[in-house]
Each structure stands twice: as C-alpha cells, then as structure tokens.
Amino acid sequence: MQHKAGYVNILGKPNAGKSSLMNAMIGEKLSIITSKAQTTRHRILGIYNTDEVQLIFSDTPGIVKPLYKLHQKMMDVVEESLKDGDIFLLVIDAADKESSEPDSDLLQKVHSKLQKVEVPVLIAINKIDLIDQEKLEATVAILKEKFPKAEICPVSALHNFNIELLFKRLVDLLPENPPYYDKEDISDKPMRFFVAEMIREKILSQYDKEIPYSVEVVINSFKEEAKITKIQADIYVMRDSQKPIIIGHGGKAIKKLGTDSRLVIEKFLDKKVFLELFVKIKKDWRDDDRNLKSFGY
Question: Residue 234 contacts by C-beta under 8 Å, 6 or more apart in sequence?
Fold first, then answer.
C-alpha cells in the first residue's frame, strides 16, 4: 500500500469550533478551547500518524476584521494558508444566524478562493446539536448552492457526532506522499508553546472583559529534572491597571491561575510541575511591531 500524506487547512470564523474539531480528530488537545472569540492566535499543526497515513491539520486563527496589529498578523496567517493545501476544511457554526455569509473582506476572499480551488473542499457544519433539522437542511441548501464542488458534513465536535466519518473522508482524499514529519511528532510546535497556551487558556476562562485579550504568556524557563519539571512564565498585560486584576486581592487570583494551570500542564506532561508566574507590563503590545515579533507573531 502506498503511503498517504498531506495538509488539511482548517478555516472559519471565531467560535465555529475549528480547534475542537481538530482536537477531536487527532485525539490530542493541541489547540486551546474556550467560549471566547479569538482564542487561537497562531497557526497550529496537529499531526496524525499511522504506518500508512500522515494527516497534517493546520488550525488557523478565526477570521475577524482587524482592529489592531495583532489581528492583522493573525489574518496574515489565514491568507498564507490559502496559498496551498491538499485539502481545505471550512468549519461553519450551525448556530450562527449568518454562518454561511461573509462578514469581512477576508472571509469573502476565503469563500471566493474555496469556490475556485482544484483541491478537495469539505465543509463541516459544526454544533448541529444546537439547531433543529429544518435549520440544518436550510444551511446545507445554502452551502450547496454557494460551494457546488464542496462536500458537506454535519458534525458535533462536542458530542463526537460524525467525527469518524469526516476523518475517514479526509484520509480518503489525501494524496500519495511520503511522510513530511517524523512519525513520533504530533505538532511542529515546541513544548514551551503548548505550556504557554495552557496558561493563556486558563486566563481566558478565569478573567472577564478586556483582560484575556490583553494578555500574552512567555515561558522564560523550562527545566526538566528527574521527578519534576520547573517552569517560570511571565504574563504580559497592556496597561498598569490590568496587573492588579491578574494578581487579585492578596494574590488570590494569580494563585488560582497558577494552580489551575499547573494541573493541566502536569496532565499534558505526565509529570509533577512547579510553576512560577510573574505579571509584567508592555504598553499597548498588540499594536507594537517589535513586541509582536518578540512574542512570535
């Protein structure tokens, strides 16, 4: 049997459930998931391997109208993903009233590109557990008219409905290629990246309003010892007033953040972890090119 390998570029609006879908198909939690929009900031590769198959998922940031330079950097990643790919997977939020309509120039560009590409296009209508059959049928009809060449698959990443069917279809459509990555790899990102994302995920779930979107996490130290891994991370905020919010009264908020983050990191590493967090200020880092570059954007 010939070996099959290829890239599946995952695209969609924020809160469509792209990351949940990728995690469900790979069986590993590689992209963080929260109910807040703009959770994914980087392109994250998730790699599924068997002896005969290497399926490389490329999870891109949710498509938004850029409000500041960080947004533009994120949307540059989306545009780059349109240049190539063996399969495109557009994820639609079934519960979004305008799920099949573009509400930004970039989303219009994505839709136009997917209508013309020669490679396979699949559309996953996610969260179908939130709508009735009539709404689903209406959405399918709109998408079939708009993307006549695309295959449409209703799914629920939360309830694992039709995930296996979608995954099998992606494997069927893969071209014959040798593996692009080592068979032991599950992503192209280093361990430090995932640890920083786990801390940021807890910030997204623990804090409200502007705080989660004003934060960047940097791992300064990652020391693996025989029985424990020692990690020191800096949490950067944009304004002086945000630092005490992260810390909380008497340090209670940051203590909870540290405990919750440590527990998920320990589960991911399968090892005891000592985690130390510090809060620092970088004024308006989301609109500063030098800071964005230092943060990996």
Answer: 217, 218, 220, 277, 278, 279, 280
Which single residue is written with the structure tokens 């039709």? 162
- The residues, any chain, with a CB within 8 Å of residue 233's CB and separated by 6 or more, are 195, 196, 199, 217, 218, 219, 220, 275, 276, 277, 278
DSSP-assigned beta bridge partners for residue 222 = 231
- Tell me how crowded residue 219 is: count the other CB atoms within 10 A of its CB: 17
Beta strand 228-237 pairing with 216-224: antiparallel
Q: Are residues 254 and 116 in the same domain?
A: no
Q: Containing domain of residue 273, as a range?
A: 191-294
- Enter the tokens of residue 57: 């998922």
Q: 178 in a domain, yes or no?
A: no
Cα 101 to chain centroid distance, Å, stands at 21
Tell me if 137 is assigned to some domain: yes
**Domain contains 182:** no
Q: Which CATH number does the domain housing residue 34 bear?
A: 3.40.50.300
Indicate the number of domains in the chain.
2
CA dihedral angle for residue 83, residue 84, residue 87, residue 92, rounded to 10 degrees: -20
pLDDT class of 172 with cuts at 50, 70, 90: very high
Look up tokens 């939020």; give the residue: 93
Q: Are 165 and 196 part of one and the same domain?
A: no
Note the pLDDT tens digit of each residue in 227-270: 999 999 999 999 999 999 999 999 999 999 999 999 999 999 99
Q: CB count, 10 Å around CB of 173?
A: 17
Residues 17 and 157 in one domain: yes
Helix, strand, or coil (residue 296): coil
Q: Do 199 and 166 fall within a single domain?
A: no
